[in-house]
Amino acid sequence: MFPSPDNFFYSLMNTVQTLLSRLRMKQLQLLIALDEHKSLHKAAAVMAVTQSAASKALHELETMFDAELFERSASGMIPNQYGRRVIQYARLLTTDLTLLCQDINEIQSGRGGRLAIGAIMGAIPAVVVPALEALHAELPNVSIEIVEDTSARMLLQLDDGHLDLIIGRSAVSAQPSKYRYVKLADEPLSVVVGYRHSARSKGPIEMHDLAHCRWVTYPSQMPLRELLEREMDLAGMSMPPNTISTASTFVTVALLNQSKDLVSVLPTDIAEMFAQHKMLRILPVSMRSPSQTFGVVTRRSGVLSPMAERFIELLRARVPQ
User: Fold this and answer.
1) Residue 18 has what pLDDT?
2) Where are the domains of the chain?
3) What is the pLDDT of residue 11?
4) Largest CB tally within 10 Å, which of 20, 30, 80, 303?
5) DSSP 3-state assignment of 30?
6) pLDDT tier at 255 (50, 70, 90 boundaries)?
7) For residues 14 and 77, what is the distance between their CA atoms, to the nearest angstrom?
8) Of all residues in the chain, what percent carry a pLDDT higher than 70?
9) How far apart are CA 165 and CA 313, in angstroms?
10) Same fold, 112-186+293-317 and 189-290
């Protein structure tokens, strides 16, 4: 008769708790040695323990799993189906621990490890990408993760330790004093349309000239949305009710490309990159509001790795001070 799902779950959790509290790496190494040498005597010699100690360690393992792991035969100790599975995971754990030690050594030496970066989209083309290229040239073994999102959402990931640093804005936080902020650059904005958009002009365009257009905007309470609302207010306009709201650059560009009456605002570096590939056109609209700034944001209570500190140095070297 099969156990009920609840009984099975509790039994499994009890086994996990037992393993976490009693399992030792020496026991796993013994399993690997037994698999390689097929002899308790030889495995004990490799482990530099007595045969009695090795036998006791194996018995403890079999008690924890409530199953025999080896069959005794004329050719030696042969792992059964349970033993093969445990040995497989013992090798995986040993390999992972070896890699962990290597990563720690490389991080301590500044030669490698993992760097998780968050960046607002406007900082990526001209600031983040060149700094990453320079970092890779110096430290080719570094593994890098890049998250592109809003500053508010990335600050949560920074708080949780999922990101090492952010290139964005700490002012959007309810508690900006929790962070260190070092200004990098301004983020000028451009008004953009799809490459086939009907709006064409040889001279300057005023914001009110776009009153008939539909807008792709940033979500409410984001700094760039507030700046657009301020520009419309200065032009004597109100935000139209039929806007499309998204924080995604990809969605914005895709929408603009498929429509002849949509218009949006993007960071100028992003807008120029897509304009070079004839996916967007930049309209000659002068923005009257001052540009937003962005910088490096780190946890005030955190300690940066050598490669994170080097990356920040490379970022600062690529923007005018």
Assistant:
1) 64
2) 5-107, 112-186+293-317, 189-290
3) 55
4) 30
5) helix
6) very high
7) 29
8) 88
9) 13
10) yes
Q: How much is the average pLDDT of 307-316?
A: 92
What would be the CATH architecture of the domain defined by 189-290? 3-Layer(aba) Sandwich (3.40)
User: Quick one: pLDDT at residue 2?
Assistant: 44
CATH superfamily of 112-186+293-317: Periplasmic binding protein-like II (3.40.190.10)
The reported pTM is 0.63
Q: What share of the chain is helix, strand, coil (3-state, %, to 5)?
A: 50, 20, 30
CATH fold label, 5-107: Arc Repressor Mutant, subunit A (1.10.10)
Task: Pick the closest to residue 307 from 102, 103, 111 (CA basis).
Answer: 111
Given a contact cutoff of 8 angstroms between Cβ atoms, the answer to whether 120 and 168 are in contact is: yes
SS3 annotation, 233-276: HHCCCCCCCCCEECCCHHHHHHHHHHCCCEEEEEEHHHHHHHHH
From residue 186, alpha-carbon distances to 42, 153, 203 in Å are 68, 21, 26
From the number of C-beta atoms within 10 Å of its C-beta (0-12, 13-18, 19+), residue 117 rates as buried
